[in-house]
Structure formats: C-alpha cells, structure tokens
Amino acid sequence: MEKNQTTNKDSILIVGSGPSAADPKAAYLKDANTKVFRLNWFFLESNLVFGKQVDWCMFNYREVILFHLLRQVIEGRYYEFNQLHFSPDEPKIITEYTQFYREYFGDDYFQSLYKRQRFNWPTPATIGNLVTDYNRRLGIKSIRKTTVPTTAVMTLVKVADAGFKDIRLAGVDFYMDSTLYGYHPLPKHLAHYRRSAIKIEQLNKVHKLLGKPLLKEDYWRPQTTSSIQSRHAVDLDTAIINHVLSSYPDIQLTVFCTDPALAVWQQVKGIKLLAAGDIQDTAPAPDNRFIPLLDTIKLNRAQQRKIVILMRHLLLRVDTLIFIRTHFPNLYPILRPLYRFIRDRTWIGRWV
C-alpha cells in the first residue's frame, strides 16, 4: 500500500451502523480533539451519542430516500456538516443523478451540495486487489454474489491512507448481534421507497405474472441476517484491517464493540479493545430531534413515481444481464454487448 504523505494530529472516530454505536458508553471514544466520520443512515440514531458535529460523512446518493431525508437533516440543521463524500464519486454517474434530482426536487440542491461540500479520499488499489483475490479463491464470478468489505472497514482504509494515526471505531460489530443496526427504523411509508423494498416489490410482480421465477428463488427474499452476512465476510473484513495495520504500523486503533463482536476483534493484534463493561456508566445522550419528524415527512406523487421509475431502470440494467447469464450462458458473450448498446441509446439508459 502506497503511503499517503498527509499527516493529521487529531484523532478520528469512525462510527459504523452496528448496535454498539447506539450505546451511550461509545461516547468515551470522542474527546475535544476528535474528528467524527459518519456513514449513510447515521441520522436515524435515536440519541446523539456522538453529538451533532459531523466532520466527514459518506453516503450512497443512489439510495434516493436516503438523500431525500439527508436533505431534510442538513437544511434543518439537526447536525452540523463539514464535508460529504458522494459514493460512488464517478463523473458520469454524478451527472446522471444531477439530472434526476433536478427533476425530483425541482432545483439544483444536489449539484450545489456536491460542488460546495464534496471531498474524496480514494481507496488504495491494493485493497481492491485483496478483495478480488478473496473472491477468486472462493470461485465467485457473479457480481451479485461478490463478497465486499463493510462500509466502515473501507472507511478505515481511507482515513489511514489520508494520514490519520489515532483512529477509533464504534459500531463495527460484524453483524454478530441479533440486532443488526443501531438505528431507529424508518416508518413504513418511507421504508417502502428504499431500493431493496422497491426491488423486491417489482420482482414479485414479475414472478406473479409469469407464475415462475426468472431468477433463483432467493433473489426475492428480503434482507435478513444471513443475506447480509453472505454479502459481507468477517474474514475479509479482518484481513483488510490487518493489512491496514501492517501497512501503517504507527497507527493506534481503538475499538468499542458489543460483547458478541469481542471474539472477532480479539483476533486482531495490536489494537486497544473496549467493551461496555470496561467503561463507567455515562449520562444518557440527548434525543435526536429529527426522529419525531419521520412520520411527518412525505413524498409527493411525482417523487414517488420518479423513485419507482429509477429503480425499474436499475433492474433492467442489472437484472437483465443476470437473467441472460443464468438462462442463456452460451449466448451471454453475444447478448451482453447488444444489450448495452440498446440500453445506452434508448430510454432504458435514462437515470441509470
């Protein structure tokens, strides 16, 4: 891994989405000189364990309902934001979603936010090679089945390469708990427009219409502990963490986790490991004032329609190729470039 010449004397706290991030004792990791890095749906936390300051935030803007809510959070100043990482930060995709959000909101808020508060810390190529080698050893070739690192672990890679030495982690529990996330659940009228929910709904309609599945049966199953764990792998995450520590031996890594995750973290050498029992009881964290507003946030008919159309296009883009690969493997090398040619030159490619 190529060393980044940047140095930073402040500590940085990466907060993942695991249940340990909801424990008030996790605030022990944050002091006056600690910068805070938040991820995706963090604003659904019930209590402000780490305060309102968000120095860096990485989020997936292709999850439309996430960005819809994030805009409410930013404009309502429920948190104080410094910089945002747009994932994936690819010019072509950014341009396409700029057009989508211009129609969705009726203004250029997405584009102005990207220009005003965007930052990008690239991922070292060696990590991509490590992930590729891992999947190759498992014999995984399908994009859908590819094992990928968790977002918090990839963030650890980025901040280490950015030059931080004192790095702290909370909410990285490797899905070892029965409670996967430390977040307040979205109300049904908003959860209905998450990408995964729309995808299952649309595929079920096709399934019902045809009377038989186009793809394997497990494609229609909602997200569960087992499905998440099949997408992520503890040994891949720990391999990347160990790789970071060996590549940057001057890093001090401090971790706060739930009890079920302790056994995994204990396998990582050279870190400072904290569990709830190691920290004295702390005062309850303030309530997150954004949570009560969730029931009042609505999408108008046009916005609902645009989200569904976008997700249908995503299904056409990704799932058509999966269907071809599954049912016509011999024709796949021929049909794939033909499909892409049609997609990029017709309405299929819009907003995708």
Overview features:
7 strands; alpha/beta; seven-stranded parallel sheet; disordered N terminus; globular; 352 residues; single chain; 42% helix; disordered C terminus
Structure characterization notes:
It is a single chain. The protein has 352 residues and is an alpha/beta fold. It contains 12 helices and 7 strands. It has a 7-stranded parallel beta sheet, sandwiched between helices. α11 runs antiparallel to α12. The longest helix has 27 residues. It starts with 10 loop residues before the first strand and ends in an 8-residue tail after the last helix.
Number of strands: 7
Query: What is the helix fraction of residues, given as a range?
Result: 40-55%
Radius of gyration, in angstroms, nearest whole number? 21 Å
Estimate the strand proportion. Answer: 5-15%
Broad structural category: alpha/beta
Largest sheet, in brief, is: 7 strands, parallel
* Head-to-tail CA distance between termini: 33 Å
Give a topology summary.
Elements: E1 11-15, E2 34-39, E3 53-60, H1 64-75, E4 80-87, H2 91-105, H3 109-117, H4 125-138, H5 151-161, E5 166-170, H6 188-191, H7 195-210, H8 225-231, H9 234-247, E6 252-256, H10 259-265, E7 272-274, H11 301-327, H12 332-344
Helix pairs in contact: 5-9, 7-11, 11-12
In short:
With 352 residues, the chain is α/β, with parallel strands linked by helices. It is 42% helix and 11% strand. Strands 4-3-2-1-5-6-7 form a seven-stranded parallel β-sheet, with helices on both faces.
